[in-house]
Amino acid sequence: KNQVEQSPQSLIILEGKNCTLQCNYTVSPFSNLRWYKQDTGRGPVSLTIMTFSENTKSNGRYTATLDADTKQSSLHITASQLSDSASYICVVSHHYNTDKLIFGTGTRLQVFP
Amino acid sequence: DAGVIQSPRHEVTEMGQEVTLRCKPISGHNSLFWYRQTMMRGLELLIYFNNNVPIDDSGMPEDRFSAKMPNASFSTLKIQPSEPRDSAVYFCASTKSSGQNNEQFFGPGTRLTVL
């Protein structure tokens, strides 16, 4: 079973709308949780990094939340733009090996005009 | 800063041939990671180096895969002999130092197709 599960697998929204992506993980104890954005044909780019003690972190129109008790995280995108079309990957690192990232399979977001 | 540089960007080869992927990390970064991405399995860590020394190669699928880092500015991932199931996008990433919260910067990837 994958230690990092994401939902939905794919999502289509209209430009200007908000959306929320979900991530559940079983990695324990975990060190930090990251959200990456991956445009088609490119490498992933980090959006946010949160340690277990942080509940929320923002990066422009992207806001990530973390509930370490329930092992859940969400990524909220406000006022979506066409350039938000990409895959969003939730990544968790283990407390005892922070270099070894454990990736979710991603949510594919498409924003239409 | 040019970011992480990978070459080639695309590689098409026939089964049984040797394939060498190359990576130049960001200057000053001392940790380097090789990943493989497929539709079925997503991103998987193959191997990573700290200060040019391989630390964890447990993700390397089999003996056909090998990686080297002869100096701080260059690494290779070699597949010999290649098989169709090796077809994937291979990413290299680097970070300033290992440890908590250090962001990994990814290269653009090499798309490998083995016929």
List the keywords.
heterodimer, A: 113 residues, mainly beta, six-stranded mixed sheet, five-stranded antiparallel sheet, 11 strands, B: 115 residues, four-stranded antiparallel sheet
Structural features, described:
The complex is a heterodimer of chains A (113) and B (115). Chain A has 113 residues and is mostly beta strands. In chain A, 0% of the residues lie in helices and 62% in strands. Chain A has strands at residues 4-7, 10-14, 19-25, 30-38, 45-51, 56-59, 62-67, 72-77, 86-94, 97-103, 107-112. In chain A, strands 2, 4, 5, 9, 10 and 11 form a six-stranded mixed β-sheet that branches. A five-stranded antiparallel β-sheet of chain A has the order 1-3-8-7-6, with no helix packed on it. In chain A, strand 9 (86-94) and strand 10 form a beta hairpin. The mean pLDDT of chain A is 93. Chain B is mostly beta strands. Chain B has no helices and eleven strands. The radius of gyration of chain B is 13 Å and the shape is globular. The N and C termini of chain B lie far apart (36 Å). The mean pLDDT of chain B is 93. Classes of the chains: A mainly beta (113), B mainly beta (115). Chains A and B meet through strand 4, strand 5 and strand 10 of A and strand 5, strand 9 and strand 10 of B.
Secondary structure blueprint with pairings:
The complex is a heterodimer of chains A (113) and B (115).
Chain A: E1 4-7, E2 10-14, E3 19-25, E4 30-38, E5 45-51, E6 56-59, E7 62-67, E8 72-77, E9 86-94, E10 97-103, E11 107-112
Parallel strand pairs in A: 2-11
Antiparallel strand pairs in A: 1-3, 3-8, 4-5, 4-9, 6-7, 7-8, 9-10, 9-11
Chain B: E1 5-7, E2 10-13, E3 19-24, E4 31-38, E5 42-50, E6 53-56, E7 65-71, E8 74-79, E9 88-95, E10 105-106, E11 110-114
Parallel strand pairs in B: 2-11
Antiparallel strand pairs in B: 1-3, 3-8, 4-5, 4-9, 5-6, 7-8, 9-10, 9-11
Approximate helicity band of chain A: under 10%
Number of helical regions of chain B: 0
* DSSP strand content of chain B: over 45%
Largest interface: A-B, 22 and 27 residues
What assembly state would you assign to the polypeptide chains in this entry? heterodimer
Helix share bin of chain B: under 10%
Model regions low in confidence, pLDDT < 50 over at least 5 residues of chain A? none
The number of distinct β-strands of chain B equals 11
Task: Name the overall outline of chain B.
Answer: globular
Rg measurement of chain B, Å: 13 Å
Strand content of chain A: over 45%
**What order do the SSEs of chain A take from the amino end to the carboxyl end, as H and E?**
EEEEEEEEEEE
The sequence of SSEs of chain B as H and E is EEEEEEEEEEE
Mean pLDDT of chain A: 93
Class from helix and strand fractions of chain B: mainly beta
> What is the radius of gyration of chain A computed over CA atoms, rounded to a whole number of angstroms?
13 Å
Count the beta strands of chain A.
11
Main pleated sheet of chain B: 7 strands, mixed
For the sheet with most strands of chain A, the description reads: 6 strands, mixed
Straight-line N-to-C gap of chain B? 36 Å
